[in-house]
Amino acid sequence: MCQASLRELALFIDPERAPALLTHHEARFGTSDAVASLTALLAAAFPAFEPLVESQPELFAALVREGWQAPRDREELVARLRTTALDGDDGEDARARLRRAVAYEKVRIAARELLPSELGGAAIDVTAREISDLAEAAIEVALLEAVHHASSRFGEARTARGEPSRFVVLGMGKLGGRELNVGSDIDLVYVYDTDDGVRDDAEAPSLHEYWVHVARRLTETLDGVGEEGRIFRTDLRLRPEGSRGPLAISHPAMERYYETFGRVWERAALVRARPSAGSLELGEEVLRDLSSFVYARRVDPSIASEILRVHDRARVELCVDPARDLKLGPGGIREAELFAQTLQLIFGGIEPSLRTPSALEAFARLGASKRIEPSEAAEIDRSYRLLRRIEHRIQWATGLQTHELPREEVALQRLARSLGYEAYADLDQALREARKCIGEAFGSLAPKRSAPASRWDEVLSRLDGEEEDAALVPALSTALRRNVGPDLARNLRRLARRPDDLLGVKTRETFPELASTLFSALAEAADVEQAARFLRTWMTRLRIPTAYIRPLGENPRALRRLVGVFGASAFLGEVLANRPELGEAAIFSRSIPTPELAVQRIEDEIAALSPEEAADPDAFVGALRRAAWLGTFEVAFADLAGEIEMRDVFATLSALADATLDRVTRFVMEGEVRGIAILAIGKLGSYELGFGSDLDVVFVFDPDAAPPGTSPDDFFARRAQRIIRLVSSPHADGPGYALDTRLRPSGSHGLLVTSLPSFARYHQASEAGSARPRVLSSGAAWERQALVRARFCAGDPELGAAAMRVAESAAYEREAPDPHEMHRLRTRMERELGREKAGRYDLKYGKGGLADIEFAVQFLQMRNGRDIRVRTTETWRAIEALESGGHLRPDHARAFRDGYVLLRQLEQRIRIVHGSSAHFFDEEAEGLVPLARRMGLGDGDQAAAVDELIARYREVTERVRAAYLEVLGLPG
C-alpha cells in the first residue's frame, strides 16, 4: 500500500480540507500509520464518513489490517455475517452485530470504489455487484434468524405432503440486477411454496400466517434502525397488489395474480427479478412459471407507450428538480434502465437471450442481437456507468439516499476530483453528453410522443400512493376546479383499491382513456361527491363488478351518462345502488328512447312469458313492471345526459303508461276489450306525463256489452277495480302507477265507472243510448275545462271514440267559461295549494306557475273551439295553434312557451334529482345548488348557479302572470 499516494489523492480531492484532516488523523493514529491516510482520504472525499471515523476508529483500523483489495463474493459474505451475527445470543444483540458487520463491509466497498485500480480500487460494476452480494448475504442471515425464531415458537413449517415448506426472497430492481448502490432501497418480494400445509393443532398458524410472521421479522431486522444505523432500507411495494397485498404470497397465488391482474409495469419489474435468499430453487421455479407473463410470444411495440406513461407519472410525482436529478431527470439512470427493459419486454418473448436482470448485460445483449446498434449499446453502457459512478459518489459523500447533484460549488468540485476530473466543468461536460445519449435512446422508443400532461395526472399519482385520503383533496379540488371534501377522496380510493377495480391500475392500463373520462364526467356532475358515492356503492353491490368494467371502458358515453345520473339524481342513484341489475339496459343502451321503442319493450317482455306465466297475474304484472321501470330508467338517463328534448321525455313516458293500461285492460278482459274504455285526462291526456306523475283517468262503459244476467255497473266496476289494482299495487319487479279517478263525473262521490249515456248527460252533450242518466248532470266550467286534455288511451276503441265525441262537444261546442269565475278558481288554488311565501316558490300553483299557463291556454281553446286547429290535448301544440290562428298574441305565446319549458323542466328535475313529487323549491334549501347545476346554470360557480336560477324563475313567472291576466281580460 502506498501511504503517500493516499495522502496525495486526499489533497487532490479536497485541497482546502485535506491538510487539516491529515494533521488531525495523523495526530490520532500516528504519522506512519496507513489508517491516518485512509481515514483522511475517506473523510475528504466523503464528508459523511467523518463522524464514523471519530466514533468507530477500530472499524478503519481493521480495514487496513485486513486489506480491501480482494473482492468478496456472496458465499464468503454470508459466512462472515453468519459467524458475526448468529454465533451468540438471539434477538436484538444478533441484529446489532449484523448491522455492525454490514457497516464494516460498506466502508470496505466505499474504499474500493474511491481508490484507483493501482491502489486496490474497483470499477463501478464490481462495487455495485459487491453491494448487491452484501445485501443478499444480509438478507440470507436475517432470514435464517427469522426462521429460527418462528420454528422455535411454532415448529417447522411443513406442507400437506409432510415436506419442509420453502420460502424465497426475490430481489427486484437494482438488487435483482446485482447493480445495487449503497443508498438504494432493496426491493423485495417474499414468496413461499404453497398454502396447502399441515397444522399440528388448531392453535398452530397456517403456512401463510407462518411465512408472514417470518417476513415481518425479516423486514424488521433489515430495516430496523439502531446505534449502528440500519442494514438496508427495505421496499416491499413491488409485491402483488403493492402495499395493499399480503406481506408474503404463495407461488400459486402469485401466478393467479399476474395472470389476472398483471400490468405492464409489473412485467417490467419482473424483468429484473432474481432469487436473492432462501430457497433459490423455489425462486427459479417461480420466475420460470412467470416467464410467459413477462415475455409475450409476440412483438408488442405498444408496451413502450405504457412504460413511458408510467415513467412520466413517476417524474411528476417524485422528481423535484429534473436538471439535477440523476435518476429521474431527463437522460437519467431510470431512462437507461427502462430503455433496456422495454426492449427486453418487446423482443424477449421471441429472443430468450435478451432475458437478463442486469441493465449492463442487457445493453450488451441488445447490441449483440442487433436490436440496437452495437456502437449505440457501447455508448449507452459508458453513459450509464458514469451516471452510476456519480450517483455512488454523491451517496457516499452525503450518507443520504439522494440522486441529486449538490448545489454548493465546493461539493461539486470535490465530486469531480473524486472521479478523477481536474474540475467540475470537465465532469459537467461528460455528464451532459451522457444524459444526451441516454435521453435520445429513451426518446426513440416513442418518437412521436407529444401528448400534453393530463390535468388528472397528479390525482392518479396520489390515488396510487399511500397517503391518507385527505392528501388527495387538494389535488382533486385543483383538477375538478371546485372545492371538494374528504368523502370524495375516500370513495375514489375505494374505486382503485384493486388493480381490476374501475379506477384500478390494471383497468387504467387496459383502457387508458377511462380515468380521464370518469374524472371529466365528475367535473361536469351536478353533485360530484354524490356521483362518486353512488358510483362506489353501485360497483360494490354488483354481483360481478368486473363484468361491467370492459363495457364502461369501451363505451365512454355509457360511463359519462352513468356518472351524470348519479351526480344529478339522488332518487335514481338510490334505486340503482339498491338494485344494480336494473340499470344495465339503461346504462349501456346505444339507442335514444322513443315512444315506439318503449312500447316495443313492453311487447317483448310480455311475449317472453310462457303461456302459464302469461295467464298468471303476478308474472304478467312483473313483466309489465320490468319493462316500464327499465323504460323509465332509459328516459331518465337520456334526459339527464341531455340526449333527448323534454317533449320526447313526456311523450315516451306517456307511451309507457298507455301501453301498460292497454295490456292490463286486455288481461283483465281476457283479450276481449269490448264494452270498456279508459280516457286519459291531465298530464297523461296531454302526452306530458312526467317522472312520478299520477295517471288521471276516467272509466267509461257500454251497458249493452255486459254479460247477460249481470249488472253492467257491477260487472264493469269490478273490472275497473282489478285494472287499478294490477296497475298500481306494489310488486318486486318495480313500482306501479298511482291512478287518480277523481275527475270522473261527480268526482269521488260518483261511480267508479260511468256509462256512455250517463257521461253524455253529465256533461250536457248528446249521444245515442239510454234515455235515463245514471248520474246527475253538471257541466261545470272547470269540468268542461278538464276535458280539453281528455283522450282515449286504452280499451274498446269504438267506445273510446264515442266518449271522445262527448268530451269534445262539452269542451269546445259551448260558450266559453266566465273568465272571472276561472280566475276565482285559479286564485283559490294559488292561495290554498300554492301557499307561496318569501323565498318559497310553487311551480304548479304559485303566481305565474304552470296553472296560469294551462288556464289561459285552455280558456282560449274553449273560446275558439270551433276552430278545429286548436283542438289538441298538448299544451305546447295548443300554444302554437292559437298563435298561428290569430287567437293568441305572439308576446303572450312567447311568455307561455318560455314559462312552460322552464317550469316543466324544473318540475322534472326536482322529481328526478330528489325522488320527490314536490313541485316547489326554497331559496334556502340545500338541494338548490345541484338543482341549479342540473338546469345547466352557473357554469360551475355554485353561488352564480343559484342566483341565476332564482332570477330566471322570477323573470319568467312575472311575464307568465302578466300574459295570463291579459288573456283573461282581467286587470293587472
Please describe the biggest sheet, giving its number of strands, its sense, and whether it closes into a barrel. Answer: 5 strands, mixed
First-last Cα distance = 113 Å
Query: Which architecture of the largest domain would the CATH scheme give at its second level?
Result: 2-Layer Sandwich
Sheet/helix structural class: mainly alpha
Low-confidence blocks of residues: 766-777
Overall spatial form: elongated
Name the CATH homologous superfamily of the largest domain. Answer: Beta Polymerase, domain 2
**Mean pLDDT across all amino acids:** 86
- Helix fraction? 55-70%
CATH class of the largest domain: Alpha Beta
The number of domains: 5
* CATH third-tier fold name of the largest domain: Beta Polymerase, domain 2
Question: How many DSSP-defined strands?
Answer: 12
Number of helices: 44
Question: What percentage of the residues does DSSP assign to strands (E)?
Answer: 5-15%
Describe the structure.
- By secondary structure, the chain is mostly helical.
- It has 5 domains: 68-294, Beta Polymerase, domain 2 (2-Layer Sandwich); 302-443, Nucleotidyltransferases  domain 2 (Four Helix Bundle (Hemerythrin (Met), subunit A), Up-down Bundle); 454-590, no CATH class; 620-814, 2-Layer Sandwich (Beta Polymerase, domain 2), CATH 3.30.460.10; 819-967, Nucleotidyltransferases  domain 2 (Four Helix Bundle (Hemerythrin (Met), subunit A), Up-down Bundle).
- Helix content is 59%, strand content 5%.
- The radius of gyration is 41 Å and the shape is elongated.
- The relative contact order is 0.04.
